[in-house]
């Protein structure tokens, strides 16, 4: 797809609540089958974004960081959210053994922290979210990588989109 200025959305997230709000905005435009890669250093806000997204879908339970389990799943009416954290992922064989391939499909939305750790095993992303520490807050950059991702990004409402 052509990369133009509608393929990227960036801005500032001055505090945690802004990261949560961005996640909630994303929740409103999701569709089944979407894959989002969450990129940024430890502490950048990847899990916080996921918490906001889940809260936006009216999930009010605990959101555990899947650092050791590699994935936590949250079933909703239209799709199941699979939240991966591949920071500790090391063994490609484990990917198939655990059946992770089947987690990606038309009945799920997958959020993947540390996608680089399983590069060749992962399907491509519809959207990437890059988070970076900036003073006491964060900056973000959302990029659409597919037509589906573009459709989500076009509908996404972000109050402080200018940056
Ligand atoms: N926009 C923000 N500004 C300041 N702190 C934030 C922001 N977003 C998240 N945080 C904080 O950063 C810390 C780490 O966030 P976390 O989501 O666990 O990072 P990651 O999953 O990327 O390692 C948390 O304490 C969270 O409250
Ligand atoms: Mg995390």
Biggest beta-sheet profile: 7 strands, mixed
Low confidence ranges: none
Structural class: alpha/beta
Please state the overall shape, judged from the principal axes of the Cα atoms: globular
Fraction of residues in β-strands: 25-35%
Number of domains: 1
Number of helices: 4
Oligomer: single chain
Total count of strands: 7
The SSE string, one letter per element, is EHEHEEHEEEH
Under the CATH scheme, which architecture would be assigned?
A: 3-Layer(aba) Sandwich
Mean pLDDT, all residues = 93
How far apart are the termini? 24 Å
Fraction in helix: 10-25%
Give the class-level CATH name: Alpha Beta
Radius of gyration: 15 Å
Side-by-side strand order of the widest sheet: 1-7-6-2-5-4-3
CATH homologous superfamily, by name? P-loop containing nucleotide triphosphate hydrolases
Q: Say what the CATH topology is.
A: Rossmann fold
């Amino acid at each position: 797809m052509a990369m133009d200025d509608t393929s990227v959305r960036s801005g500032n997230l001055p505090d945690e609540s802004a990261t949560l709000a961005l996640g909630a905005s994303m929740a409103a435009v999701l569709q089944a089958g979407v894959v989002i890669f969450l990129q940024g250093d430890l502490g950048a806000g990847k899990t916080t974004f996921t918490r906001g997204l889940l809260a936006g879908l009216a999930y009010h339970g605990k959101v555990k960081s899947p650092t050791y389990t590699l994935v936590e799943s949250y079933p909703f009416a239209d799709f199941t959210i699979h939240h991966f954290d591949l920071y500790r992922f090391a063994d490609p064989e484990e990917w198939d053994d655990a059946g992770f391939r089947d987690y990606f499909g038309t009945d799920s939305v997958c959020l993947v922290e540390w996608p680089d750790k399983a590069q060749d095993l992962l399907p491509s992303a519809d959207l990437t979210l890059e988070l970076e520490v900036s003073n006491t807050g964060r900056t973000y950059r959302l990029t659409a990588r597919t037509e589906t991702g573009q459709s989500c990004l076009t509908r996404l409402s972000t109050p402080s989109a200018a940056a």
